[in-house]
Amino acid sequence: MESAPKPRVLIAGGSISGQFLAVALQSANIDFLVLERGPEIGPQLGASVGCHPHGNSIFDQLGLYEAVVAPSTPLAHAQAFDNRGNVVESDITVISEHPARFGYPAVFIQRCDFITAMYNKVRDKSKVLVNKAIVDYIEDDEGITVYTSDGSNYRGTILIGADGIHSTVRGLMKKKAEEAEPGSGTKLETTNNGKPGFLTEYKCLFCISRTNDKECPMPAGESYWTYGRDNSTTAVSGQPGLFFWFLWTRTDPVQGIRSPRYTEKDAEEFVQQWSNRKMCGDWTIRDAWNARVRGTLVSQEEGIIDQWSRGRVVMVGDAIHKMSVNAGLGAMCAVEGIVHLINELYPILSPNSTDERHGGSPSQDTLDKAFQAYRTKHLKRLTRIYNLSCQAVRFEGQRTLLSRIVANYVLPWCSNAARLWVFKGVLGGQPMLNHLPRDMSKPINKIQA
């Protein structure tokens, strides 16, 4: 009798979510294939990733922690300013307590370095393919076949859409749902505010620049925040010789599945508009822009898609949830969701599993239950983090009189314990991979959800 084909997970997208999926599946001994539409893995886009203690505990479980933090300087100190460069708070030290309180620091790392660190952990590089833009897929009772723009096709058990905010996979899922039953694809584009697509109320210029003693002096491990009316900035010195910075401004709200996209010319004009805006002391946006390595102007979409799966296809990361980056929690949210998904897939796909459901290609009913469990387990904590991120961009942009009072007259008197209370539902209680041991000597791994 011919043996059942070995389960294989096809992954659309080779960025943060795609590479983390690859490493996590590898640890579970589940076969996978990453299909990245771009020409390279981890291109330099001028973006950075905040790695907080709850995410670092997961990276440690997978043997990724040292590779992630090695090029980074742990954050230890912060200062806050108003948009005229005046000091609001000069000695914010709460983040320096993270290693003692949680067992891990908070660090910022270049997005390209973060992706490369994960890619380097993939033992078989032939399982990560570039220039493979997905154009279609066909499902049957035994699996799924994915077709790419170069005429190739790939066979797998399931397809995971890890292809970002402008997800091709999500679009294909909706198309097939509508073909099967008109109107049934609506929830694949409806978000938690009950409207189609994501809300875009802010845009952000994010950059990587070089520190220097003249225009942009910034000690390693330092953070600068500035508050302004409908605008704010953050600068973080996360890697030696570099700092990551962001300028947010409010725009006319747009609701839709396709958010505004900006060119390099748009970015330059945006900088010109805000060139004299103070980031700290006499340091301006123009000073930071002139010292840039790379910078990009992007929309800040907000929303959580209602439906995360259909048939043998399921989505993760920015394909289903997007939030402003002010709180720096988006990437860690994607990681947590993938942990939940892997915990549901391991019993039915891993050859190491002793679960009675394991063996051959799982039925659609088995997959439906696994995908629904993933959504249910991830959604509660995701919603909390999403709401915190939405509040952060509006608080820093001083949308209300209350936010202005709190920033200028309440926060300067807050203790570190009080500041941590705001994040009590985030720093700790994160999911962990069930098939791997966890280091219970780390305080964060003892915090209950």
From TrEMBL:
UniProt domain FAD-binding: residue ranges: 8-349
Protein name: FAD-binding domain-containing protein
Entry's Gene Ontology molecular function annotations: FAD binding; monooxygenase activity
Cited InterPro entries: FAD-bd, FAD/NAD-bd_sf, FAD_mOase_fung
Cited SUPFAM superfamilies: FAD/NAD(P)-binding domain
Keywords: FAD, Flavoprotein, Oxidoreductase
Origin: domain of life: Eukaryota
Family: Belongs to the paxM FAD-dependent monooxygenase family.
Keyword Disulfide bond in record: no
